[in-house]
Amino acid sequence: MRASRLLAAALLAGLAGSAAGAAVTVVDDAGRRVTVAQPARRVISMAPHATELLFAAGGGARVVGAMNYSDFPAAARKIPLIGSNSVIDMERVLALKPDLVVVWHTGNTARQIAQIEALGVPVFHSEPRRIAQVADNIERLGRLLGTGPVAAPAAAALRARLAALQARYAGRPPVTVFYQVWDQPLYTLNDAQIASDAIRVCGGRNVFGALKAVAPQVGIEAVLAADPEAILADKRYDPGDPGLGLWQAYPGMTAVKRANLLTVDGELLSRPGPRTMDGAARLCEALEEVRRRRPRQGGSE
Fold first, then answer.
1. In what order do the strands lie in the sheet with 204-206?
2. What is the DSSP string of 166-220?
3. How much is the pTM?
4. Closest CA to 201 of 296, 278, 271
5. 234: left (phi over 0), alpha (psi -120 to 50) or beta
6. Euclidean distance between CA atoms 64 and 75, whole angstroms
7. Peptide bond before 185: cis, by omega within 30 degrees of 0?
8. DSSP letter string, 14-82
9. What single DSSP character describes residue 246?
10. How many helices (H) and strands (E) does the chain have?
């Protein structure tokens, strides 16, 4: 009897070991199949948002190298840097012996990605352009890391928060929004960027969402012609700052007349990671305030 139990235990242990070492394949945001022979243990993150996604998926301790600006959570600041968005130290990358690299097509140069792919290391392209895709990224990275018990509930919690925001705000009267990324020159974002998805979730509409470029340059005249109900800028601005205050020279604009020059933490909205939900929640509250500032029917401004 005892021998039978020992044999059964050995067989179970062998099966568990085989499962743990089984190859895992996922499809990344570039539509490519990414396969790891076993759960990734040494990961390099090529973008700040990817670093946040890896931590959310339960793999923070496995990130052995990261790009500059990988500053959240606090533990990410201790990760050795392997370069910036313009140049990477390939010698350092090689020395770190990664078994998975997470790249960002929009933020990394084609040359950087080609250098990484030439190493023959599994490469996961992370490009969330919708808040729902952040949860998908967390889940898939969790599979590659073998950290599903952490990644799955994290993704589920994010989806639940998103569903709650959509249920509350998607049917609200629409608010036209100009998202000011920079003022000299004047840049905005189109609908392919995750910040615009947050605007949409909150019942807003990006007035330049249909433009082809992800971060198009626009003129003041174009903004005046669009006459957005709200102008949204990074928190580094305040209504008195010349960057956002430039619109005070145009008192006839709806956003100016109604004091709808808004600021939000651009890192929360534009960095496509798990904190995008926090940015979206704050934005929804701000757009609801914009609705409350509308003149009553029959009233005047």
1. 204-206, 175-180, 230-234, 261-264
2. HHHHTTSPPEEEEEESEETTEE---TTSHHHHHHHHTTEEETTTT-SSSS-B--H
3. 0.88
4. 278
5. beta
6. 12
7. yes
8. HHHHHHHTS-EEEE-TTS-EEEESS---SEEESSHHHHHHHHHTT-GGGEEEEETT---SGGGGGSPEE
9. G
10. 12, 13
What's the confidence (pLDDT) of residue 17? 39
Element (H, E) at 103: strand 100-103
Bridge-partner residues for 180, per DSSP?
233
Q: What is the pLDDT of residue 87?
A: 86
Is the dihedral angle over the CA atoms 152, 156, 157, 159 positive or is it negative?
A: positive
> Quick one: pLDDT at residue 239?
62
d(C-alpha 169, C-alpha 209), whole Å: 19
Q: Is 269 exposed, middle or buried (0-12, 13-18, 19+ CB in 10 A)?
A: buried
d(CA 44, CA 121): 11
Q: How confident is the chain (301 residues) per 10-residue block, as mean pLDDT?
A: 38 38 92 97 97 98 96 96 88 96 89 91 96 98 98 98 95 96 93 96 97 95 98 77 88 97 90 95 97 80 61
Average pLDDT, the chain: 90
Residues 115-147 have pLDDT tens digits of: 999 999 999 999 999 999 999 999 999 999 999
Task: Please count the CA atoms within 13 angstroms of the CA of 293 that sit on its side-chain side.
Answer: 18
Kindly report whether the peptide bond that precedes residue 216 is cis, defined as omega within 30 degrees of 0.
no
Residue type for 81, please? Answer: L
Provide the token pair at 274.
């798990």
Extract long-range pairs of 225-229: CB within 8 Å, 24+ residues apart.
226/176, 226/178, 227/176, 227/253, 227/254, 227/255, 228/176, 228/177, 228/178, 228/253, 228/254, 228/255, 229/175, 229/176, 229/177, 229/254, 229/255, 229/258, 229/260, 229/290
Q: Could you give the angle at the alpha carbon of 286 between the alpha carbons of 282 and 288, nearest 5°?
A: 115
Distance CA 100, CA 63 (A): 10
